[in-house]
């Protein structure tokens, strides 16, 4: 089955990160995409954490979109922070406590990126569905 979409809105606060992970797990279970739960929840966690860490004071909410289409699960996290588009760091500081989120997203996804929206941006990642 293809063409499914589910969008949920969360407040920009730390407690929304585990809530977003639970939402992904529930949705993917319903869609019978159990093998994708672990990478999808980790990607969601990293993207939602970035919103909470970097987009505070800009808007009250972020959107989490899950789309199943054309053999791919698309995970999208959108917020209204528009001044800086995320980029994977060129080099990681092994002593740093953070800065690995987009490296993890890149490692788990087939591809990822960011696109502007008005206002703000949406960061997305693709996970192949395989033979589902």
Automatic annotation (TrEMBL):
One of its GO terms (molecular function) is protein serine/threonine kinase activity. Pfam families: HATPase_c_2. Keywords: Kinase, Serine/threonine-protein kinase, Transferase. Coiled coil: none annotated. Gene3D superfamilies: Histidine kinase-like ATPase, C-terminal domain. The keyword Transferase applies. Residues 15-125 form the Histidine kinase/HSP90-like ATPase domain. This is Histidine kinase-like ATPase domain-containing protein. It comes from Actinacidiphila alni.
């Amino acid at each position: 089955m293809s063409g499914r979409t589910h969008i949920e809105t969360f407040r920009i606060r730390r407690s929304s990160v585990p809530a977003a992970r639970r939402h992904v797990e529930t949705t993917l279970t319903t869609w019978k995409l159990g093998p994708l739960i672990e990478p999808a929840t980790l990607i969601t966690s990293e993207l939602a954490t970035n919103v909470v860490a970097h987009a505070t004071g800009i808007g009250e909410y972020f959107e989490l979109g899950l789309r199943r289409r054309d053999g791919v699960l698309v995970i999208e996290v959108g917020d209204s922070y528009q001044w800086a588009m995320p980029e994977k760091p060129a080099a990681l500081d092994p002593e740093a406590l953070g800065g690995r989120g987009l490296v993890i997203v890149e490692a788990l996804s087939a591809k990822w990126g960011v696109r502007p929206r008005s206002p703000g941006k949406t960061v997305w990642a693709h996970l192949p569905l395989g033979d589902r």
